[in-house]
Each structure stands twice: as structure tokens, then as C-alpha cells.
Amino acid sequence: LPHFTYQSATDPSLVQVKNYFKLDSVVGTGDELSKIFKLLHFVHDNIAHDGGNYALCEFDAIDIYNYHKATKKGVNCRHLAITLNEMYLAMGIPSRYITCMPKNPEDSDCHVINSVYSSQLEKWIWIDPTNNAYVKDEKGNLLSIAEVRDRLIHNKPLVLNEDANWNNQEKQTKETYLENYMAKNLYWFLCIDESKFNPESRYRETYGKYIALVPEGFVLNLPENIIKGQYITNDPNYFWQLPK
Prior knowledge:
It is a single chain. The protein has a 6-stranded mixed β-sheet. A two-stranded parallel sheet has the order 1-10. The longest helix is centred in the first third of the chain and has 15 residues, at 32-46. The chain is of the alpha+beta class. The protein has 9 helices and 12 strands. The chain has helices at residues 12-20, 23-27, 32-46, 61-71, 77-90, 145-153, 174-184, 224-227, 236-239; strands at residues 5-6, 95-101, 111-118, 123-127, 135-136, 159-160, 165-166, 170-171, 188-192, 194-195, 210-213, 231-233. The protein is globular.
């Protein structure tokens, strides 16, 4: 299985992202968690979401942002997660964007969010730019995607942040967002092995490998052109390994 890699913040493309968005000013002088949340709010507040729009632009933060500003159209959850992912990488924070998939092969709906590594907490945390969302347990501990999934399975308490919302128009609740929508989209996961600038270019070969985490016994019923070249694992410890 491939190693997960995270592009260095010194990469010229990520330096460009950092400078273009003036990210030092965005994150301020707070601790790491403060910076993680400020970047989440920045993307959520500055790029609208439209799940039905597959934007005709390159898949990088600068092009996605400029597409929205030029057309006034929203972008889908994948574009938002890629944008936020590049901003985290540009600030030296390891992050991946994760496609969260349903069990039903006829269900074409999925959701893409970020798994962001906090060195302060020494763990991954759930970050969703579409809904300005993160999740805690009943004691106030921030949770990872894997932990949220496990708690949904075992009916353990989950606490959604109070300011979780869609497009600053519609408040999200734990019941609708986590127990209804995300519960059905946490059956299996797909992630690219290289977390980097413009990871899924529409126009250039990027050479990324897709890795699927599926429950044992579950057979991916996907078209051959999609499943070809993918790596499939049943090992959550591999898939959610901490960045090196």
C-alpha cells in the first residue's frame, strides 16, 4: 500500500497559496487549534457551496476561489475541501480531504470533508468547510472522522459546534447533519495518497493513487474505469495513520 505524503509548506505552489490569501493575517497569533478553526471559517465564509455545480476550473485553492468570485456560483464539497486542504498544507498543518461514501451503490450522493492533524492534540480531527462543522464528545474532546463513525455505530454522545451552518443561511443540527446525512455517508472512505497542491487536475496528469477503506466483506460495486488503479484496504490503522 502507498505511503500517505503531505506536501511541504515550502513548495512554491503552497507558498503562492499562503501569500495570495494572506494566510498569516487570517490565522493570527493564536495556538494551532485556533489557526485550524480560523482557516475553516475563512473558506466557509468566502466561497459559497453548491453541491450540483462541478466547477470548470483547476482544482486548486486559487482557481476555485477566483472561479467563485468571477461567476458568483457556488462550488461543490470536493472543491471546498481541496481549497481548505491546501491552506492547511500551506501553513504547515498536515491535512487530507476524505470522500465519505454510502453503502448503497445506487446512492450517488457522498460528502467530502477534511481530516486535519493537530500536533497540539496528537490526533486527526473532523473539519467540514461546507457546513463550518467540527465534532466533540460529551467531555469537549475534538473527534476524528473514525471516532465520529464509531460513536454513531454505538449510539454514543456527539456534540456539533453551535455555529455549524450551510452557506451562513441554514443552521445545522446534530440530528440532521450527523445522525441523518453523515451517518449514511460514513460506510467507506476514499482518499488520495498525495496531499498536495492541485491534487486532481482537470488538465494535467497528477499521478495520485486512490486508496479506499472498506469494511471487511464489502465489495465495491464501481465501474472498472473508476476502480482501476485504486488500492483497497480493510485496515483503519493504515488508513488513519498519523503523518510522519
